[in-house]
Design a protein that fits this description.
Layout: E1 4-10, H1 15-27, E2 34-38, H2 43-50, E3 55-59, H3 73-77, E4 84-88, E5 92-94, H4 99-103, E6 109-113, H5 116-122, H6 138-148, E7 160-168, H7 172-185, H8 206-216, E8 223-224, E9 236-238, H9 257-269, H10 286-314
Parallel strand pairs: 1-2, 1-4, 2-3, 6-8
Antiparallel strand pairs: 4-7, 5-9, 6-7
Helix pairs in contact: 1-2, 1-9, 6-8, 7-8
Length: 316
Amino acid sequence: MRSKTIVTACDRNFAAGAFLMLSSLRRHGVNIPVHILERDLPDADRKLLEQVDGVTLFPASENAMLQHMVYEKYEAVRTAASDLIIWMDSDCIVTGDITPQIDATGAGLQIRMRPENEIAYLFRQRYCVDDQKGKMPRSVLEIWKKDIGERETERISTSCNAHCFVINRSWVGFLERWKNQMLKVIPQETSHIIVNERSPAYPFIDESVISSMLAFCEEAPAITEFQFDRDPAHSVIHFGGSPKPWQRWLQRNLVWFDEIMDNLDWAEQQGWTYPGRPWFLKRKYKTICRMDAWLFERKRLAVHRLRDTARKLLCR
């Protein structure tokens, strides 16, 4: 049986999310050691995370060139000495024991590759007449090929999600090159964000960069089909976008309300305290949370429409 370590990274904005992730892992019997790369966590947040069994915190470098913690994946992975290293964004939870899904990883990398309908939607504004919808636009692939400077033809014509992946230890060096490639192609002024829609080839920044490497590097890990979204009872759930559940509920996330309450209640039974647990993370306020999410999203939609109308008027 191959040894395993789960790694993640967080700052004070994601400490509560990391605690939700840890609670879900332990409640569902995932007793794999967890390494958390942290930057400037207050003592209260450190205590929140360190009270969970099998958790070790590691300080992030103060001299990191890329400012967002999501770009610290390589630094987090290199804290582990196990055969398999599992990266999970600190805004993820699990719905069951994911150990068998981890063990399904081959000798390379298990990561989610986007299906054609996602690619067609995400890159809809970048397609030219001769491009095939559902494949990466040729203009994007040409930039990737030039920036990598190795293969002439792409190995893949899609992009990946990097919120959760499993890497075999023999390929950790590939992640170091990922970090170096980000430093090469990501402007410093955008290194504090995770999405840059103005970038012609790297709109999803770190995900776009590793996708370019999987496509055009001569040496790249073999990809195992992603296992963590096949079985709803043994899945990794990623709360992309904002706000996060520990900040405020979105309607699409409310399907996981009871799951998160179960995790928090179970954590309290283990003696793991969550000081200042907000009202929207308490089961008795579920109906109010639903109303608040509905009102919040209606207000946000109205603001977006108002901005779009104003922009169109100004551009006349």
